[in-house]
Amino acid sequence: MKKIPFPVIQRLSYVFEIINKLEENGIGKISSSELGGYLGQTAHTIRKDIHFLGIAGTPGTKYEIADLRRLLIDHLGFGEPKRCCIVGLGRLGEALLEQLLAIPQDAFAVVAGFDSNINRLETIRTSIELFPAYRIEKTVRKLQIELALIAVLPQQAQEAADRCCDGGVRGILNFTPAVIKPKRKGVFVRAVDVSGELRILAALAYTSTANE
Amino acid sequence: MKKIPFPVIQRLSYVFEIINKLEENGIGKISSSELGGYLGQTAHTIRKDIHFLGIAGTPGTKYEIADLRRLLIDHLGFGEPKRCCIVGLGRLGEALLEQLLAIPQDAFAVVAGFDSNINRLETIRTSIELFPAYRIEKTVRKLQIELALIAVLPQQAQEAADRCCDGGVRGILNFTPAVIKPKRKGVFVRAVDVSGELRILAALAYTSTANE
DNA sequence: GCAATATTGTTATTATTTTCACATTTTGAT
DNA sequence: ATCAAAATGTGAAAATAATAACAATATTGC
Ligand SMILES: NC(=O)c1ccc[n+]([C@@H]2O[C@H](COP(=O)([O-])OP(=O)(O)OC[C@H]3O[C@@H](n4cnc5c(N)ncnc54)[C@H](O)[C@@H]3O)[C@@H](O)[C@H]2O)c1
Ligand SMILES: NC(=O)c1ccc[n+]([C@@H]2O[C@H](COP(=O)([O-])OP(=O)(O)OC[C@H]3O[C@@H](n4cnc5c(N)ncnc54)[C@H](O)[C@@H]3O)[C@@H](O)[C@H]2O)c1
After folding, report:
1. A186-204 pLDDT per residue, tens
2. pLDDT per residue over A147-179, tens digit each?
């Protein structure tokens, strides 16, 4: 099977979100141009992206959403819920916990939370199990957790990520400004950094006007 | 001046963050390979990126951080603090507010918050001015706000963004899962979507193993 | 001083990604 | 039935970005 390029994966992930919502609203078909509209992309791009999944529609007709969904599940692994954990249950960590538990998510299941501060573990009221930080590795392995959200202070980010890697996670979502490197091969890291995003926006706006 | 490609802007924004921290710690020089290490990139890439700024260093020597900083300020507009506002002061909005006010930021200044719920405006204790949502346009114009962080419910995201555009913002950082389209040309939009990021991570992990 | 080493500047090459073009197929109206 | 319109499938072209290669320059140790 040919490797799917990263930008394509990124867009197809959004496509999956969109068709799920449409399906809930009883919509059964969608065209490449409509999808393009939602994503801010052209119909060309969408068709080419879908092409990476193998044949999904028939010419002349729109895409059958059910078919599209099935293909995305098969090729991108969106079938069964991914088990996640949150490391660092401060303000951000707790907000993330609430957010992910509140929204009815068929795609992700938060099954554990970790913090080095025992007081935090006793303070937070939630339906999932909470553990001290030194038990990250064992717990991740035991519960077969695949994804970790890192929301500790930047200084501890790498160490927290290393423990998750040791436990066997497959992906890390880093909310701290620190740069995290995966300890093992095959672990993917992505960052969510507010200051960084703002800086990029500022630079985009600036360079676009500076060139006029 | 030649247009700087987006990936380059993205990386140079991180470079700016890194050299600021190093400068605080009294470090005066840095090499392309060291920078590459921080960013998870090769020295080649870093040198090529810096090359877009015009000449920054001299062969044989490392980069003078002060020079690099000056060039980044000139070319990417990181000189004076950018004025920001937060639209939607729920759990996430309040957390963002605290986060951006807490960290001593020379790059960004949060100068206003907006919410449609008057009760929220009276509940939150903060040092910046808070306004009802219907005053977004006027306030953004008056305070010359350049960047907006959108943290309302997804259904209201486009409307909130439109008002910010009307007021004249240059960039929008969208924290909701809704897709936002800029109302005016020249307004840049970026999204921070936890579910989306998780899905991308999951897909990356899945496709990497499915191909083995 | 000079050679060895380390480091940047710049061009060239390669790979990736986007965009385009058009053939093919279905639907629906006349 | 037939034609026009609309939609996807797919390969080619163009644009963009990453990687590599190497020349040029400074520093350091001897
Ligand atoms: N990307 C975003 O959207 C965003 C927004 C706000 C904050 N942040 C970042 O998120 C991080 C957390 O912010 P916060 O406001 O929640 O901070 P916080 O101080 O409220 O929370 C940090 C928590 O991490 C715990 N912790 C420390 N070391 C640990 C370890 N080794 N293992 C497990 N837990 C550990 C602490 O006990 C604490 O509860 C910071 O790095 C901050 O910069 C990111
Ligand atoms: N990207 C992330 O990291 C992340 C994390 C958590 C939540 N979220 C998203 O952020 C959004 C807010 O989440 P939350 O938990 O803070 O929700 P919330 O309900 O606590 O807050 C929403 C706030 O927006 C206000 N509001 C509604 N309509 C408005 C309008 N037109 N103008 C101004 N204000 C308006 C409401 O009064 C409320 O105070 C949601 O879309 C959620 O999905 C994103």
Report:
1. 888 888 988 889 988 998 8
2. 999 999 989 999 999 999 999 999 999 998 787
pLDDT of A61-89, one tens digit each? 999 999 999 999 999 888 889 999 999 99
Strand, coil or helix: A147: strand
Q: Using an 8 Å CB-CB cutoff, list chain B residues near A211.
A: 1, 3
DSSP codes of every residue in chain B: -PPPPHHHHHHHHHHHHHHHHHHHTT--EE-HHHHHHHHT--HHHHHHHHHTTS--S-TTSPEEHHHHHHHHHHHH--SSPEEEEEE--SHHHHHHHHHHHHS--SSEEEEEEEES-HHHHHH---SSEEEEGGGHHHHHHHTT--EEEE-S-HHHHHHHHHHHHHHT-SEEEE-SSS----SSTT-EEEE--HHHHHHHHHHHHHHHHHT-
Which ligand 2 atom minimizes the distance to the CA of B157?
31
User: B194 and A99: CB-CB below 8 Å?
Assistant: yes
Residues of CATH 3.40.50.720 domain(s) within chain B?
Answer: 82-195
**Hey, whose CA ends up nearest to atom 13 of ligand 2?**
B92
Q: Which of these CATH numbers, 3.40.50.280, 3.20.20.70, 3.60.10.10, 3.40.50.720, describes B82-195?
A: 3.40.50.720
Which nucleotides of chain D have an atom under 7 angstroms from any protein CB? 5-12, 16-21, 23-27
Fold classified for B6-75: Arc Repressor Mutant, subunit A (1.10.10)
Nearest CA in chain B to A83: B202
What is the distance of C-alpha A138 from the center of its chain? 23
Q: pTM above 0.90? A: no
Name the average pLDDT for chain B: 90
